């Protein structure tokens, strides 16, 4: 019996070592080199969200839009140069993504507290997304760290890979599948739309022409989004856009999803039951959201000697 127990213990140890070997990221990556980095990021994010509640949604979106284009490598943060066609100018990002100045501030403060640039911009995006959710009432999770920053960006790839607010369910499923994400990830991560706002031009066709929409909801949205003009006028993605809750999913069940791609998740398709589950069970949503955020945060990460640790998140070190 003793030898059998020893064998089982050895198997457990081997499996643990194997898991460590194949895991490229770790929540404790900076624990020795800069233990004050995470509290510093949390402090800057909380101050930014306190100053403008909408900023939480913006910082969460930056991480999402970064990861979906060539992986979680901070390519989104790079400004245009003679050799870089910035992803900031893509259809999904231009005049839409925001919060870059908060990331700049975080980078300055973290490098100061660490004494040198050891914390990557890609990791800052991942941690800032988590801290934004927590600042707005959501549950926390351990963020695996150790990403490095890209030296390139691609507006063309951003135009190709970022999901559109006009996508139907099959297109959304395919879009997420290409990133290694399944239907549960799609629904859980779409729940990030419990925070923030959308511009009129992204939902105009839905409120005037679609039939799977509550009449009163459509009429309310038409008051600030006319058939012509007002393209950048904002509307909340759910009734509590500065609180991380399940109102987004409640809206979908009531046919009050703002974007076509939102309501596509509850429209007689394969994701209906999961939407209903999340609308009724906040704990299930929070748990799945955290798992999917970690999974998304592992998309095509740069580690080891790949990439670099930028001095300025907007510029490549030459």
Automatic annotation (TrEMBL):
Binding site for Ca(2+) 2: 194, 238, 245
Cofactor: Ca(2+); heme b
Binding site residues for heme b: 193
Any GO BP: response to oxidative stress
Domain of life: Eukaryota
Keywords on record: Calcium, Disulfide bond, Glycoprotein, Heme, Hydrogen peroxide, Iron, Metal-binding, Oxidoreductase, Peroxidase, Secreted, Signal
Main localization (coarse): secreted
Residues annotated as signal peptide: 1-21
Binding residue positions for Ca(2+) 1: 66, 69, 71, 73, 75, 87
Entry annotation: catalytic residues: 65
Binding site for substrate: 163
EC number: 1.11.1.7
Free-text remark on how the cofactor is bound: Binds 2 calcium ions per subunit. Binds 1 heme b (iron(II)-protoporphyrin IX) group per subunit.
Any one annotated GO CC term: extracellular region
Compartments reported by the entry: Secreted
Marked site (Transition state stabilizer) residue numbers: 61
GO MF terms held by the record: heme binding; lactoperoxidase activity; metal ion binding
Intrachain S-S bonds: 34-114, 67-72, 121-313, 200-225
Pfam families for this protein: peroxidase
Family of the protein in this entry: Belongs to the peroxidase family. Ascorbate peroxidase subfamily.
Job description of the protein: Removal of H(2)O(2), oxidation of toxic reductants, biosynthesis and degradation of lignin, suberization, auxin catabolism, response to environmental stresses such as wounding, pathogen attack and oxidative stress. These functions might be dependent on each isozyme/isoform in each plant tissue.
Protein name: Peroxidase
UniProt lineage: Eukaryota, Viridiplantae, Streptophyta, Embryophyta, Tracheophyta
């Amino acid at each position: 019996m003793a030898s059998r127990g020893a064998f089982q213990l050895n198997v457990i140890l081997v499996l643990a070592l194997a898991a460590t070997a194949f895991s490229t990221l770790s929540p404790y990556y900076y624990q020795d080199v800069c233990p004050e980095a995470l509290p510093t990021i949390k402090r800057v994010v909380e101050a930014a969200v306190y100053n403008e509640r909408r900023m939480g949604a913006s910082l969460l979106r930056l991480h999402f839009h970064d990861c979906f284009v060539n992986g979680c490598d901070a390519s989104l943060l790079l400004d245009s140069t003679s050799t870089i066609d910035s992803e900031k100018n893509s259809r999904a990002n231009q005049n839409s993504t925001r919060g870059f100045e908060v990331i700049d501030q975080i980078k300055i403060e973290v490098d100061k507290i660490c004494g040198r640039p050891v914390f990557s911009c890609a990791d800052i995006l991942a941690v800032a997304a988590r801290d934004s959710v927590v600042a707005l009432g959501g549950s926390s999770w351990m963020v695996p760290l150790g990403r490095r920053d890209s030296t390139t960006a691609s507006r063309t790839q951003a135009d190709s890979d970022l999901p559109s607010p006009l996508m139907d369910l099959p297109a959304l499923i395919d879009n997420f599948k290409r990133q290694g994400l399944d239907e549960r990830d799609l629904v859980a991560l779409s729940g990030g739309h419990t925070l923030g706002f959308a511009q009129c031009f992204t939902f105009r066709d839905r409120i005037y022409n679609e039939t799977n929409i509550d009449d009163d909801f459509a009429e309310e949205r038409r008051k600030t989004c006319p058939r012509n003009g007002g393209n950048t006028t904002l509307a909340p993605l759910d009734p509590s856009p500065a609180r991380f809750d399940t109102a987004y999913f409640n809206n979908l069940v009531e046919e009050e999803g703002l974007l076509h791609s939102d309501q596509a998740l509850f429209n007689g398709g394969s994701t209906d039951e999961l939407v209903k589950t999340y609308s009724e069970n906040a704990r299930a949503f929070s748990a799945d959201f955290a798992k999917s955020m970690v999974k998304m945060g592992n998309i095509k990460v740069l580690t080891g000697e790949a990439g670099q640790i930028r001095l300025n998140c907007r510029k490549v070190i030459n």
